[in-house]
Amino acid sequence: MNCLTDFQNILKNNGIAANPPVDKYQITAFESQNNVKIPHDFGLYLTTMNGFREGEMWGLSNLWPLHRIIPLTRLASLKEALSTNIKDALEKSCLYDSSASAENKIVNPSNNWSLPNADSFFIFGDYNVNSCYWAIKLSNSRGGNNIICIYDWGNTYHTVAGSFSDFIGKIVTEGGESLI
């Protein structure tokens, strides 16, 4: 995954700090907790740089560390998504559970998503401070790990890459805005 090295160099040259890498035990714990398998290229990324440090962005792109990666169906539980403007937008969308506490607005997985198998997608980053999210398809078997960009306010999405390697390659060559 040569693009990963290129990406690390770009970040370093721009003063962007990455998180310390995770180890295989942390990946195994995530896999066990979520009944999924992390694809090799995504695992390599996590064991190399594990997202950006808190508060860091490259342009408007933000890649999250393993401990922040969540199933797409829990999108509204993000504490940072509870700012007044986003909260108002979420309340009008199918992503908001008004009966949950303010700190844990968990999406009901039975919501009518336009994305088939929405529960198999995991959010690993965002663009423009949660304007849209990047999610990777994970399952308990290897393969078929496409990346989507999803807009929670309209429950719309589109595929942006066929794998995590493709995703990083596009970020390196075209920038994060090419993936929204």
UniProtKB/TrEMBL annotation:
SMART domains: SMI1_KNR4 (SM00860). Pfam families: SMI1_KNR4. Residues 21-170 form the Knr4/Smi1-like domain. This is SMI1/KNR4 family protein. The lineage of its organism: Bacteria, Pseudomonadati, Bacteroidota, Chitinophagia, Chitinophagales.
